[in-house]
Write a structure and sequence with these properties.
This protein is α/β, with parallel strands linked by helices. 38% of the residues lie in helices and 22% in strands. The structure holds nicotinamide-adenine-dinucleotide.
């Protein structure tokens, strides 16, 4: 069992999952996992130290050269289809765990987090079975010729470091392709969201994935399990989703051993709303882009540029949208907005709310903490917030806040909109709203971001390349693009 009640304890302990077993840290160290909804203690998490990280990496290495490495691709992919089915069979357990850890509305996790978590295993099993090969007939001086072909081999033991905003979804987005390609993994979920990664260990065991293929170690970043993992000499590659500055720290940690990294990092995404847009669709789409998951979505929008004739009307409509979102318990169907993930994150978001005031913003709505009753008063709530009137140089417009908030600014020309949208060190996603076909393509081609949505937001096809430009990431994952990171290509040249 991943979560058990010790006789002396009132709350469950969440263990590490290493070599197919749930194990406590030899140090006996644990840390608290509290509910973002009401501050309740949800569990004690066993914090992995050097011994556990070492054990997990060794278990992953042994599986690679042992039973997992011996499987044919068809056998491996069958196991991944079984993992997907088993997550769906245990859907409610995953849902409850994800909602408890994050406090997000259950409807959101039901429709996005858990189904996508399962789909990530299925889609990459499909991808690896259908990847085209590479073959060349080569001329040689003796006119006999040679044939060249490339084979893909697993990279080895992959360190997977995941964030807390979409815990199962983002973690399996890496574990799915890593395993499909024949690698083994050591996962370090966020300290804020330890549960679903741990539950996945039970799924792996239940469907017969060999021990050591999937390992989970719990803990923090610097000086804890995260850093220990990235510094471990037995790791062949690191795939990470999280903040840009954490990505920089991980790059330094792997630099001496020259290990490859795949990074999905932060963003300060723009929305561009042209006066010719479908107004209702744009308000609905930008409303989701700003407030979904309490603004804790890397692809979310925190800067909205609206063509001047539409500006006042658009601000008013987005304000109405924000004010319609009622904070509340995840399981309450009327809840439109969950809490932020932690008190620490709330302090950070509120510091930007304060900074906006200092920088002279007009606070269109929100800007503070909502009044919550009873136990909910101990939760990590903030009001959905909209500003106008800030200079583009304000930290509120330049830095990623990761909260339910945005700044709106009018623009006059297409060129100005493109310039404003691109004026950032990030480049993850931009959303364009227009009914003019040529304009949509023209603007999309000029946007410096990994993902450009036209008249939609968060519409994902998992076969497409996903990743960020500039400081929003390194590399692309998704569909066949994931294979570039999770496999190594070897060239075989056969003289005829
Ligand atoms: P974070 O960088 O603080 O933490 C992410 C993970 O890294 C956690 O598991 C953490 O424990 C670990 N970590 C922290 N420091 C480390 C270190 N020095 N060495 C090794 N591991 C370390 O990010 P977060 O707060 O969990 O997530 C929010 C951030 O993630 C935002 O910046 C958001 O934009 C970004 N994000 C990006 C994407 C994307 O696809 N580009 C998706 C989701 C979230």
């Amino acid at each position: 069992m991943s979560q058990v009640l010790m006789p002396s304890q009132k709350v469950a302990t969440i263990f590490n999952f290493i070599g197919g077993e749930f194990v406590a840290a030899t140090s006996g160290k644990t840390f608290d996992k509290r509910s973002p909804v009401d501050g309740r203690l949800l569990g004690l998490v066993s914090e992995a130290g050097e011994a556990e990280v070492d054990r997990a990496v060794n278990a992953a290495r042994a599986a690679l050269t042992g039973p997992w490495g011996a499987l044919e691709m068809a056998e491996r992919t069958e196991l991944l289809y079984a993992v997907a089915s088993e997550i769906n069979r245990r859907f409610d357990a995953f849902l409850q765990a994800e909602v408890a850890d994050t406090g997000k509305p259950a409807s959101l996790a039901r429709h996005i987090d858990i189904p996508r978590g399962a789909a990530n295993f299925k889609i990459f099993a499909d991808v690896v079975k259908n990847v085209p090969g590479e073959f060349f007939r080569t001329d040689t001086p003796d006119r006999q010729g040679a044939i060249n072909y490339a084979i893909r081999v697993p990279k080895g033991v992959i360190a997977v470091i995941a964030p807390w905003n979409l815990p199962l979804l983002l973690m399996t987005w890496k574990v799915g392709p890593a395993l499909a390609c024949g690698n083994t993994v050591v996962v370090k979920p966020s300290e804020e969201t330890p549960s679903t990664a741990t539950l996945l260990g039970e799924v792996m065991t239940a469907v017969g994935v060999p021990k050591g293929v999937y390992n989970v170690i719990h803990g923090f970043g610097p000086g804890s399990a995260g850093e220990l993992l990235t510094r471990h000499p037995g790791i062949d590659a690191v795939t990470f989703t999280g903040e840009t500055r954490t990505g920089a720290a991980i790059m330094k940690a792997v630099a001496d051993r020259v290990r490859p990294v795949s990074f999905e990092l932060g963003g300060k995404n723009a929305g561009i709303v042209f006066a010719d847009c479908d107004f209702d669709a744009a308000v609905e789409g930008m409303g989701r882009a700003v407030f979904a998951n309490c603004g804790q979505v890397c692809l979310g929008t925190e800067r909205v540029y609206v063509e001047r004739p539409l500006f006042e009307r658009f601000v008013a409509a987005l304000k109405a949208k924000a004010e319609s979102l009622k904070p509340g318990r995840p399981e309450d169907a009327k809840t439109g907005l969950g809490p932020l993930i932690s008190q620490e994150h709330r302090t950070k978001v509120l510091s930007y709310y304060e900074q906006a005031r200092k920088d002279g913003a007009t606070v269109v709505t929100g800007g503070g903490i909502p009044k919550m009753e009873g136990e909910l008063a101990r939760g990590c709530w903030v009001e959905p917030t909209i500003w106008t009137g800030l200079p583009e140089s304000s930290a509120v417009v330049r830095e990623e806040i990761f909260g339910p908030c945005c700044h709106l600014r009018p623009f006059d020309t297409e060129e100005e909109a493109v310039r404003l949208a691109n004026d950032t060190r990030y480049g993850l996603a931009t959303t364009i709203w227009t009914t003019k076909l040529a304009r949509a393509h023209r603007v999309a081609a000029k946007i410096e971001a990994g993902i450009i949505w036209v008249n939609c937001w968060f519409l994902r096809d998992l076969r497409t390349p996903f990743g960020g430009s500039k400081q929003s990431g390194i590399g692309r994952e998704g569909g066949v693009h994931s294979l570039e990171f999770y496999t190594e290509l070897r060239n075989v040249c056969v003289k005829l």
